[in-house]
Amino acid sequence: MEDGNHSDTSNTTVSDSKNTGKRLPGKAFTKRRSLEKNFDCKVCGKTFVNSSNLRIHKNLHTGEKPFECEICGKLCNQGSHLAVHKRSHTGERPFRCEICGKSVVNSNSLKSHKRIHTGEKPYHCEMCGKSFNERSNLVKHINIHTGAKLYNCEVCGKSFMSSSNLKTHEKLHTGEKPYHCEICGKSFIQKSHLVIHNRSHTGEKPFRCDICGKSFVDNSYLTNHKRIHKGEVQFQCEVCGKSFMTNLQLTTHVQTHTGEKSYFCEICKKSFIQKCQLIVHKRTHSGEKPYDCDVCGKSFSVNLYLKAHKRRHTGEKLFHCEICGKSFFDNSHLVSHKRVHTGEKPFHCEICGKTFFNNSHLVSHKRVHTGEKPSHCDICGKYFYSSSNLARHKLLHMGKKEFRCEICGKTYVNNSDLKRHKRRHEGDKTFHCEICGKSFFDNSNLIVHVRTHTGERPYHCEICDKAFICKSDVNKHKRTHSKGKPLECEP
Prior knowledge:
Layout: H1 2-20, H2 25-34, E1 39-40, E2 47-48, H3 51-62, E3 67-68, E4 75-76, H4 79-90, E5 95-96, E6 103-104, H5 107-118, E7 123-124, E8 131-132, H6 135-146, E9 151-152, E10 159-160, H7 163-174, E11 179-180, E12 187-188, H8 191-202, E13 207-208, E14 215-216, H9 219-230, E15 235-236, E16 243-244, H10 247-258, E17 263-264, E18 271-272, H11 275-286, E19 291-292, E20 299-300, H12 303-314, E21 319-320, E22 327-328, H13 331-342, E23 347-348, E24 355-356, H14 359-370, E25 375-376, E26 383-384, H15 387-398, E27 403-404, E28 411-412, H16 415-426, E29 431-432, E30 439-440, H17 443-454, E31 459-460, E32 467-468, H18 471-481
Antiparallel strand pairs: 1-2, 3-4, 5-6, 7-8, 9-10, 11-12, 13-14, 15-16, 17-18, 19-20, 21-22, 23-24, 25-26, 27-28, 29-30, 31-32
């Protein structure tokens, strides 16, 4: 009988395979048959090799999560997911990367991690061609194209593309910061933020730019940095068209249009767009400067200022103007410099209407109206509107004139004075009066000249209240009161 023959063949297959250790055709057929996907999901059409896998899959559609963690109560739709979750409580990470030594909770995480070393990105977006090392990252990315935001916050209604992003956001409402730094005690909403923070203690910067060699604590910082080399801007303001390297920079910029300033200083009531801006501002009240230069000992209130300062020691100028080729220590100086080419002066004085290339020049200018001179020379007691003016003044006391004209040999205390002097050799009168067309070697002379048209006389004699268009004229006038004797430095 056919059944009997089949039974005999079956028995022979098992017996022979035990005796010889070889896999015979009957066994191979059985194996092939078991790999066939005969179990279909009626909801989404996905197929599975056995009924148990199909049953687990169905839990995704029904939302059923029958596996509960006895420690925290979390529910999972698979027993294997629960086993992996429990490792978050025990700290167990049994899967170790043989390249860098990092340990992870499961084999899938290890496979994904190894792709960082190999550069493999097997998941491709069919819309834009971008590739990813994990399928979950591809799914999140596709939502950017579709605009799908499936996860809603019950507190504020904000929507998110993934449940993990929603969970992170919800911690902003609860104030929960479960990840703590063992060194300084600072807490974080996400573990990834703690990992990045820990590198500020260790000094580790594992992400290196292959163009300029600069290193970063996080891969996202490296990605943003590389856009500087490429001249790439991805995020554009719909109001004014200005472009930014990162979405965070765009979000901050948009608030300048809306006027939204959510963070207030309880000391002076000044308000700020970002919390980090408020923290930095508070240091102007406390005098705190936590960032020290290990070369000269100078302290700074902001780490960014320290980094820019250090480049002055190394001579490193990473930011280049593509119009004239001039290089700068930091990006803010490059941005201000470019306005010289475009003529843009976006900072306006609300008192006299004068405009400036950057905000620091506006701040210094406003002190002309208020009379405030916060920078004090500890040698002669003279006061100045800005720290840069004080620094130039101190060079006079030191007798340092390091900038030499190669044409006539005359020396100057700073480079800007040397440049101004060179224009006289070259006959270069770059500064033109818009009213009468007269040209000048430097901007300060133009400013004084314009006052002859406007009638502005900002310098007053405190003895007789007579007004003058420039400081040198008021000093000459004061000598008429002192009977020609030289005036002492103002205290």
